[in-house]
Amino acid sequence: MIDYQHIINTIHSELKGVEDKGNVASYIPELAKIDPNKLGIHLTDSIGNHYSAGNADELFSIQSISKVLSLSQCFAMLGNSIWERVDVEPSGDPFNHLSLLEFENGIPRNPLINAGALVVADMLVSHLENPKEDFLDFIRRLTDDDTIGFNEKVANSEKETGYTNIAAANLLKSYGNLKNDVDEVLDFYFHQCSIEMNCRQLANAFYMFMNNGKCQKGKKYLDITQVKRINALMLTCGFYDEAGEFAFEVGLPGKSGVGGGIAAVLPNNFSVVTWSPGLNKKGNSKLGMQALEKLTTKTTQSIF
Ligand code: DON
After folding, report:
1. Residue 28: which domain range?
2. Does position 96 have pLDDT exceeding 90, yes or no?
């Protein structure tokens, strides 16, 4: 039996004092206020045991990690038709780059870059009765936790400075790959990114990617093929132009957010979330990546 609690405690104490923690995202002004010294880790194993260290119970902005959850709700609802509007190839570009979008006629490279997530948001806006509420409700059901919510301040902060996303949405619209009103889709997207969770809640939300599509309570949200596809996308696209590095160092499907969170899974074994707000140059949590590298090295567990 692997002693996850001991390993997580060790990782936390090895990283807590590291001086270079990276830089907190500042392009969303509300995120610039977060204390860079926070460090939380939570691991939920396949039989539902929970292991925590550090600030694992503090809420943070999940940001791009929400893209995996919006994709899941969309994929469960619409099936393989979604791949007509968004591709499944790694971009090798930063999360907010637009160049490939123009080059490839408005079909985003994958659903985990911003342009792809905007297309997914558009599909949800088309098919959900009350899009923002219904998406939040999906996450609350996955986690069995009604306390999870949007942070309106963060959503508004991003709306006020979200020029690149506004440009991306307009570009998608010009190619006919956004069916709804640009502002409505952006409003949905900024809200999905503003959702706050702690490491434990997010590890619960990602439990289904480790557990063949079933959440902790046993309800099935995705079939096995859909889980395979989403995990493949996380592995190849979850860290943008650092996806190779994450696979190389950590060896797990995962997804980062500029709030400093990383969620990752080892299918049939565990779901794990780290939170450290300082980011590296590619916009991924600096200590979070190091913590997960240590986890897969110390446990000798990874998908490889
Ligand atoms: O669209 C944005 O720029 C943010 N709401 C989310 C970006 C993000 O989290 C990228 N991930 N590492």
Report:
1. 4-63+196-299
2. no
